[in-house]
Amino acid sequence: MPGTLPAGHDPAVRSRNRRVPVLDHVVTTADGDCPVTLHLPDEGSGPWPAVILYPDAGGTRETMRAMADRLAATGDGYAVLLPDVYYRTPGWAPFDLATVFTEDEERGRLMGMVKSVTAAHYRTDVDAYLDFLSAASEVSGDAVGTTGYCMGGRASLIVAPHRPDRIAATASFHGGGLASAEDPDSPHLRAGEIRSTVYVAGATDDGSFDDAARDRLEQALSAAGVTHTIETYPAAHGFAVPDNPTFDEDAAARHWAALETLYAEALPRA
């Protein structure tokens, strides 16, 4: 059954060298076994509201795990699920974000990985993630938040209309392809099905979410009556992720504050 653990799977706790407790799990999806980590607050006994964190094009790595740690410890705490979105490519080699866009071969490999995860994949995967979170003793309530970066920002907006019954808060940071006129899977086309509160932060230097796309998304969300905020940070694409060459400390701090406010307002606590 999608969302369940393989028989006999015993999650390991990895917290000795981390700021917060982390549980290793495998979530069974429609396409196979997806490794995930569940990051928990280091204070309190829980359970906590759940948030799904979608990584950027670099995929799950230490930087993303550190970001999940920080999100788990934000405010009154969250149970943060970080999936390996590239699990359909077993054994994929990590990327060096400092050089990947200057090396043609690595850039090509990265783009291939990004394209390997389709909108349909995000939808079927989130069904399994939500089933998993429903069964997790560390998680409270049915309402779930999402956040994502770069391609993960698009994923966050793709799953919102797919599961309006569960997703209550949706965030996207320097996400691309959010409102494409040419893409039949562009998230803005299903704005009428979104029931979550939406926060989108683009960047002044980001061709993947230009003024035309921003206006298109704004119009779609407004017409659908979606509670939303769209902002443009004075930064470049990748501003929120520390191992990205375009990381911007001020913009990253602003993004953390925005997430704390969004989830405090939109994610109920038991």
TrEMBL record:
Which SUPFAM superfamilies does UniProt cross-reference here?
Answer: alpha/beta-Hydrolases
Which is an annotated GO molecular function term of this record?
A: hydrolase activity
Q: Which Gene3D superfamilies match?
A: alpha/beta hydrolase
Top-rank taxon: Bacteria
Q: Name one Pfam family in it.
A: DLH
Q: What is this protein called?
A: Dienelactone hydrolase family protein
Record-annotated Dienelactone hydrolase domain positions: 41-262
Q: Give the keywords, sorted.
A: Hydrolase
